[in-house]
Amino acid sequence: MRDQIEESIKMFGEDVDDAVASPANKNLFTTYDGESDELGKDRSEFFHSVTAKLLFIMKRARPDIETTISYLMTRVSKSNEKN
What we know:
The chain is mostly helical.
């Protein structure tokens, strides 16, 4: 499972060094439909791929991230730059 987590972090492409209490920020449920450009095909597929990997991790080992990942799964088809 550690390998899947590390792969997801590497795919994301940003440094993830801080310890946090939750994987979400305080604006998790804020939507920006119509206010932000939709992701292009490549970035949309990347977002879907990372979200699917996180869903697998959530189901197998990290139930504490369920709220965040469940919300991200609802945004896969409507992904934009802000959320």
